[in-house]
Structure formats: C-alpha cells, structure tokens
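Changelog note: in this version the structure field was regenerated for every chain. One regenerated record is shown below for reference.
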Amino acid sequence: MLILVKEKISQDDLKKAAEDLDGYVKFVVDLEKGILTAGGKMHVEGEQLLLKEGSNQSDLWGGGLDLETGEVDFDSMINIRPNQGNSSRTVLDQNIREKILKIVNNLLK
C-alpha cells in the first residue's frame, strides 16, 4: 500500500503501509513541500506519485523506517545523483539527511 502523506499519519495507516515489507516502510520525501510517500515495494513508486503531484525530481530523496526499532535509513536507488553531488544510494549530505529526518519525524513517528 502506497500512501501520500501531507500531515501526520495514523499508526493504523502506517502499519498498513508497512505490510508490503513486514514492518519496514519505504518513504520518499519531498524536501521542498515537506511531504512524503510511505509504503510500496520500490522507492520509484513513491517517486512517481510525488512527480505526478508536482514535485521536482531534485527535491525527492528515498529511505526507510523500521517500525520495530524506529531506525531511519537513507538508502535508495533514487538517491544516486552524481549531478547533485550524491554518487551513492545513501544520502551523503548531512544537511539533506537532517531535513529528511525532520519530515519523517513530523509525519511518520
């Protein structure tokens, strides 16, 4: 289940989003709009939904949330962007990580 999240998600909806991956939620954050998608099996699903909603590609970053531990990761194929200085699946820029974490904490935790 893929959910577009513009305000704090309910715990029931978060659990539904995590059903695809047994308690792990993939997310794609729009840093500019402060929104995200939660769920789905691949980050590209969330990326495509946000692009349809008018997001800019350069503002979208992927990661995941483990519901059991609360741990957030910053790993996704959509993060490979040499032209933005990110040559890895992992978000390398600490400032971008902090922005992602703030949005995830506001909307998912």
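Spot check on this record: The chain has one domain: 2-107. The mean pLDDT is 96.
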